[in-house]
Give the backbone structure.
Amino acid sequence: MTASPKIQLQQLVDLQSVDDQISEHRKILEDIPRQLESARAELEEKKSILKVVKDEIEALQKQRKDMEMEVQGENDHMAKAKTKLPAVKTNKEYTAILSEVDAIKEKVSKIEDKELEIMEVLEEKAKEIPGVEKKCKEEDAYFSEYQQKKEVEEKRFKQELEELITKRKVITDQLDTVIFKRYEKISNSRDGRAVAGLRDNICQGCFQQVLPQMVIEVKVGEKMHQCGGCLRFLYWDEVPETPVPK
Ligand SMILES: [Zn+2]
C-alpha cells in the first residue's frame, strides 16, 4: 500500500534533512586533511627559525676559522721575515724588514679585533638557541595536540556519516520509487536540495511566488506539490510569529 501524500512528504523532508547532514559531514571530512596540511606547513615555517639561527652560527664559525688561518699565515710570514734579520748588512735593509714585520703585526691585530667581534656575536647567537629550541618543542606539542584533536574529530564524523547513510537507507526503502527517483533528479540538478519550504506564497528554494490554490493545498498537505519554478517538493513552512512591538 502506498503511503499517504502527507506521510510521503514527511519522508522527503526527513530525507532532505539526512542528505543535508551527509553533505555537511562529507565537507568536514574533506576539510580535515587540508586543515592538517596547512597546520603542518605553519609548523615547519615556525621551526625554520631554528635552522636560520644555526646556519648563521655555522657561517660565523667558518668565518672565524678562516681568520685564524689567515692569522696563522701572517705569523708564518712574519717568522720568515725575521729569519732574514741576522744576515742583514745595511741599516736600510734592517729598517725595511722591521717595517715589514710591523705591517704584518698591524694586519694580524686588525684580523684579531675582527675575530673578537665575531666571537661576541657567536656568543649572543648561541644564547638564542635554547629559547628557539624550546619554542620549536612547544610548537611541536601544539601541533600534535591539534592533530590528535582532528583525528578524533575525523573518527567521530566518519562514524556519524555511516549512521546517516544507514538512516538514509531506511527512509529510501520506505519511499515510493517514482517519488524517490524524482527527488534524486531534482537533488542532483539543484545543488543537493530537492525539498523546499513554502512561506506565505514564496518557495524558499527559488523565491518565486506560488499560485494561491497550490499554497492552500500545500498548507493542507493532502497532495504532493512541486514548485513551478525550481521543481522542488514543497512543504508548508510556518513563518514564526514575530511579536508586535508595543
Ligand atoms: Zn521553487
